[in-house]
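Researcher: I'd like a structural prediction for the single chain below. Treat it as a standalone chain; there are no partners to consider.
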Amino acid sequence: VKDPQRAAAIASAGKHEISPVRIIEFGEVLLKAEAIFEYENTAAIVQYTLNKFDSAFTIRIRIFNNLKDRIIKLLFPLGFQADGCRGKTAFGIQELDRTGMETVSQEYMIAYNAEQALSVIKTGCYGAHFKDNTLGLSLLRGAAYCAHPIEDRATIPRDRFVQRMDQGERVFEYTLNASATSSRFQAIEQETGKIQQKPQILSYFPDGNGQPQVPLLTIDNPWVTISALKQSFDGTGYILRLFNSSQKTEKYQLKSKILDLDYNELLQPMEIRTLFLTQKTCRKTDIIDLGNR
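Model: Treating it as a single chain, here is the predicted structure.
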């Protein structure tokens, strides 16, 4: 958007005019910028949040989509030559196509070469493509329902309103981070968990005179992440599910002061491990919780 008056109208700002690109927060911890875009009858408000104490930054996109038979993508041209692109799958990671074909992955993608890597943690979308050293995330598709092309046959009526997918207001959020390739692959699982599995917040006001609580458990290896922790169905203990996201065998140490546990073992590459925990005991169990057997 080039017109400050149009920018103010899209943003519903109290001012008559605002700059289409501007800094909206500038503090000791965060810098936040906002930009307003418009294409035909569709608008997007994009906020960029930079943490001054972290290499990661966040892009939050609010789209008001009215496009028909179009796809909206977010493109990231890379500042280095990538030799590969991988995407998260269920308890795994796979190499993705780099010829422009649409692919599907969960939670995150990493474009990389032997030395450098860029990760994108996704919230709200799965589709993407990679071509010409550019990562393109698929946001919205304005396609008609049940209207896949069949030769020259008409698939939708032409004399009335036809509903389209992905219309109206949508919000997406992406967290980008870059580092050396080895450290990027090592850190991405824990970074993703913090962003996509945010803790629940309770509204209460402690007096500040209590003692800090120790964590329920800790794991010393960043390659080994906690996928699930819950009470067992029979109520006699806890089910802990771990995942080794490394391509190598990894050793980890599990500690819990509350349960009086100190346990360690080796996990094979990409291995899933389910443990049954009770006071002072930790043992392997089936991935399906059928109770304490």
